[in-house]
Design goal:
F-box domain-containing protein, 33% strand, eleven-stranded mixed β-sheet, single chain, alpha/beta, 268 residues
């Protein structure tokens, strides 16, 4: 038997602590991930009592239905993935990566049903599509600052979700990348009215296929960008007319900024 399976299959034994049961229950229910790990290390009772897996770096392959955890070695230079059997509850703490290029849904599957708490700081989704209500669930962490969405975010009826509805799910963002990108003519007017908690230092709109207002876009960028921010915007292969129509005006406005200069721009 594999050691990890053998350890997890051990039965829980009655434990006696010099504290009242309600106090022990309070500790388990209110522990931070760091404290809970220390409790696991000092006594296996705590894990078998809570069955919560602290998951700082999670990789979910939707096609294979595999949940794996990313471990860094050699001072962070290298890493490897390792799966755990019998995982009942996941406490997402640092980064979640979801990969799948099969045309299937995420809601109700083995992964979503296991999420116990969400304190993610980074979220990366690389799938053919993601339902908006799925993204709403994953956005519940108050700590999310880095978002990478290489996925078509849409409603259940197949309609794409405009960028403003997606970005306001993440009020703490510092880095945001999305592909494909769906704008409306009112997108940046609406975004300018929303109060983000942080200045954005990196923003990427990839595979743009719809028209937007370049003036309101640049106004939003100037108000929202951190000093020395990075900005990328690219258009889809079938959107050459939009590129010719909108990019010159965007470049002209950004290059004319006097009080803010971007560290890097990429227009394509």
């Amino acid at each position: 038997m594999v050691l990890s399976k053998k350890v997890i299959s051990l039965p829980i034994e009655t434990q006696y602590f010099p504290f009242l049961p309600n106090f022990m229950k309070y500790i388990l229910q209110n522990s931070s991930p760091k404290l809970l790990l220390k409790l696991y290390q000092c006594c296996k009772y705590f894990y078998f009592k809570s069955k919560i897996t602290i998951a700082p770096n999670v990789w979910f392959d939707h096609k294979e239905k595999k949940i794996e955890f990313k471990f860094f070695v050699n001072s962070g230079k290298d890493f490897f993935y390792r799966g755990y059997p019998n995982t009942e509850k996941l406490w997402l703490c640092e980064k979640l990566e979801i990969h799948s290029f099969s045309d299937t849904r995420l809601i109700g599957n083995v992964f979503f049903s296991k999420i116990y708490r969400n304190d993610l700081k980074e979220l990366s989704i690389k799938t053919r599509f993601t339902l908006f209500k799925e993204l709403e669930i994953l956005s519940k962490s108050p700590n999310l600052t880095e978002i990478e969405l290489e996925t078509c975010v849409k409603k259940e009826n197949g309609q794409p979700i405009p960028i403003e509805e997606i970005m306001i799910l993440f009020p703490q963002i510092k880095t945001f990348k999305i592909s494909p990108t769906h704008f409306t003519m009112k997108s940046f007017e609406k975004l300018s009215k929303f109060k983000f908690s942080n200045k954005i230092n990196s923003l990427g709109f990839w595979m743009v296929k719809t028209e937007f207002d370049p003036i309101s876009m640049c106004k939003f960028l100037k108000e929202t960008f951190d000093d020395d921010a990075k900005f990328i915007i690219t258009f889809g292969i079938d959107s050459h007319h939009l590129r010719q129509q909108l990019l010159p005006r965007v470049k002209e406005i950004i290059n004319g900024w006097e009080t803010k200069k971007l560290k890097r721009t990429f227009f394509c």
